[in-house]
Amino acid sequence: MIGQQQETQLREGLQSLGLALDDSIVARLLAYLALLLKWNKTYSLTAITEPERMVSHHLLDSLAALRPIAGRQPQRLLDVGSGGGQPGIPFAIVQPDWQITLLDSNHKKTAFLQQAVIELGLRQVSVVCDRVENVTAAPYDLITSRAFADLADFVRLTRPLLAQGGSWAALKGVQPFEEIAALPADIASRIEPLTVPGLGAERCIVWMEPKA
């Protein structure tokens, strides 16, 4: 059950991240977590089932990347391999002006995502159930992934969907130097370390974009 303890934990984490959010946004973030907890019993959306760990590993882990990504001022964002909706749904709750597409090939996961979008009133979010190589949508100026594939495959599979001047932002744990070394020669990359409140593990964003 999501209760006062999780709200306090979330608010303290948001403060650590420098995110001053309205009470209504905090309530929607917790409502999303409650939905994830409820649906997880049937659909196995996440291996993390303890509410306090869900706050740190799903909400704060996603929102630690929000300010760096917001600095790119994305208008159209694609979250590949969205799974239970991280980071796409927390981003959508906090940034209602972003047009976000959540993509996953698992029908159970996209059924949950669609229900979450409806219940949370995320009108700017669309859910697509398909393999990424079958997607032919308009180009995105930012493409994210949290646990989709290694970096070379992520770039290769989503390259046709990247707008001119767009970027990839892969949310990773330990800095993936071997994966970066395997990127195509025409892809520039850099690592931005992240600190996630309450999470005693390394996190980073790997930024990538085609070289000019």
Structure description:
It comes from Chitinimonas viridis. It catalyses: guanosine(527) in 16S rRNA + S-adenosyl-L-methionine = N(7)-methylguanosine(527) in 16S rRNA + S-adenosyl-L-homocysteine. 41% of the residues lie in helices and 23% in strands. By secondary structure, it is an alpha/beta fold. The termini are far apart.
- How many separate helices? 8
Overall CATH architecture? 3-Layer(aba) Sandwich
Shape: globular
The end-to-end span amounts to 50 Å
- The CATH topology turns out to be Rossmann fold
Helix percent reads 40-55%
Number of strands: 7
* Spatial strand sequence of the major β-sheet: 3-2-1-4-5-7-6
Subcellular location: Cytoplasm
Main location: cytoplasm
InterPro entries: rRNA_ssu_MeTfrase_G, SAM-dependent_MTases_sf
EC number: 2.1.1.170
Topology of this protein?
Layout: H1 4-17, H2 23-43, H3 51-63, H4 66-70, E1 76-80, H5 88-94, E2 99-104, H6 107-120, E3 125-129, E4 140-145, H7 151-158, E5 162-172, H8 177-181, E6 187-194, E7 203-210
Parallel strand pairs: 1-2, 1-4, 2-3, 4-5
Antiparallel strand pairs: 5-7, 6-7
Helix pairs in contact: 1-3, 2-3, 2-5, 2-6
List keywords for this structure.
7 strands; 212 residues; single chain; alpha/beta; Rossmann fold; 41% helix; seven-stranded mixed beta sheet; 23% strand
Task: Give a nutshell description of this structure.
By secondary structure, the chain is an alpha/beta fold. Helices cover 41% and strands 23% of the residues.
